[in-house]
Protein: Integral membrane protein
Amino acid sequence: MKKAQERSGTGERDARSGTALELLVHGVGGTTPTEMLDDPRTVRITGDHVAAVFRRTEDADAESRPEDYRGRPVPEAYVWCNLTSGNGTRALWLLLLPFMVVNIAHWMRPAAHGRIRTVRLYGLLLRLAGLTLTVLLVAAACEVALDLVAWQCAGTRACAERHSWLGFLSPALSEGGWWSTPGRRLALAAAVPAALTGLLWYLSLRTWRAYESQQPMDREADSEDDPRRAALSRPGFWYGRRLVARLRAAHTAAGLLTVAVGVAAPAARFDRRPGGPAPLDTLGWALLGAMAAGAVAVAAVVCRRGRSERLIDRTLDEHLVRRLPLAVLLLLVLALLYGGWSRPDWTSDGRLSGNTAFGGIALVQGLLVVALAVVAHLLHRSRPDVRAAIRGLGGPAVAMLACALGGVMSGGVAQRVADWMDGTGTSLDGPPVLLTWQASVIPPLLVVVLLMCAALALHTLRLARAERDAVEGDHPGEAGDPGRTRRIALARAMATLTDRAPLLVAITSAATLLLGAGALVGALTTGEVPGEAARGTYAVAQGAAQTAQDLGSWLIGLGFILFVTWGRRAYKDASARRTIGVLWDVGTFWPRAAHPFAPPCYAERAVPDLTWRMATWTRATGGRLVISGHSQGSVLAAAASWQLEPSARRRVALLTYGSPLERLYGRWFPAHFGPDALASLHEEVDCWRNLYRRTDPIGGPVRLPGDAGPAVDRAPLKDPLTYGRTELHPLPAPILGHSDYQADPVFAEERGRLLARLRPGLPAPRHTGGAAATVPAADGTAGDC
Structure:
């Protein structure tokens, strides 16, 4: 009886082995299972409300009816859009935009083999840059709450009278009330930046539990002997739980330390005056010394070795994660008590020392970016890649933009609050001088950007004119339509703008670095805003400085208002949330390695999902799986394929369309999607075919070297499918660009070829020699693989 059951089980598996699976993965912006499967009746077969695999209702039990799927695959759709555009709380992620950008820069390092120390130094510099962004954001909150509100406005009678809610903090209006002393005002206002730090900690912890807690499959690491082995194939690549927890503790402590220094430093400065109370002076020095020790501890935690990817590291530094923030929180409580101690003769006048603080942060960020550029250049020079963006300097350039974005957000908040508090513009000293200088460089930076955009527009128009002859040549024998030709040529020319993005980023980043350095020098040497600093010089220089100052203040305020408006709209409007979700789809693909407060990495949930689904299918059926990815879905498909066991990887075929694997990821992230990594993926999966259009601004060819290139990339698809009206298309066919690849007959043809190649049992033999493998097509023709 037992043997009969074994024979029955073997026969059932042999029957199921004839069933093929097509696993569809959508791209940015998301879609619905109904649209992906082209059927209004769908059912979720595995997953939850965040990410799940769907089938058509009639295919729900396909495994039990293999005879019904002899000539066609079972279609499944993996829907992951809710990972990036879910409920309204995702609008809060806009606050984390600078953190996301600096985290992206971490993964942009050039490819290098055998330069372990240099690679670690690259990651260390970016972790330090991420730490400065946390300090900058909390310092901006301290500038608003402590300096502008509690110190300046509450200490000025005219300002306090305009804002009656500050009356109990004003010495004049409250007639010397208990909260009216400067130290107690600062201690009370410290609740705002401390709450911001707590919010960042909470968001990181909540998303950490939802994303980083998803464990990938247990498997042995691939052999590291091959230098082309992609890092994305390491078992622990998508499990950065330990590092995120450690960095979260360090950044939380850094934020609380910033608040503590903002309260204690003014009090300690007052206590150091001649004739001041010796006990308070001693206590102030001891407290500041303890804060300095805490800062050293935070820096040491950040400087520790980063990610562990070769193995799935499930251990946590629990003592560090808990004790460091709690110790700093205790220091903050002591700072509040020390600052709030009674000092009857203490009054608030002028500004707090924000200019020195923001100047120090800006200087450190500039030095980190320069050092990062040197390290990136050394890595790129050791293994040059002609396709790498900005010759390997993409990471430093993006890190510079992250720092600039953090500065703009900080300056915008401070400038708008200062304008709101000081209605007349004469009663308050306003924000630190450096923030005004930084706002003043925005107009010249915009001029540079607009000039580059104008040059790109002119080049695009010239290219569009040149493309008209090519468009007509692609449709010989058809009556010409000048309007139709212009539209197609313009779509092709516009699609090439993606390839010029590195030049735009490089010039913008370089201009930002130079103008930011000029603003820092101007603020520290003059101690005055640009308009006042230029007073007495040439009339042209004085007018330009005043114009830049006024226009910069208006622009940075407008940017802040638009930012808040967009966030509020995204909180209430699902369509606006989906728009923001597109940004997160691209920006949060990578794990949090440089900043723990960045938006969570959805791939740490999506890649294990896809890996588990592919592995379980190949084990149950013996193979025959085509993973079909569009746009960002092709990146997820490639990442999941890398995570499979080598034996399962050889049973999977990969079909990508509209894919940014080489055009965007290969150029901007050469260490992980460079030519070597993509070539190894092509060799390890059973077969890979890639479809693209010349009108697609995102997708493009994979560009593998040698014979592997045409084996993967099909010639560009026609777009539109027909130039004019035909019997099959009596109405004009649309220009599809990046969408509707499955509407092209070539898609079904290539999928049929992949399925014909995959056989039950062992995969088809690979040709590793000079000629590409020949794949029998469904229609009897032959294709390369």
User: Anything to note?
Assistant: Residues 1-16, 761-765, 767-782 have pLDDT under 50 and may be disordered.
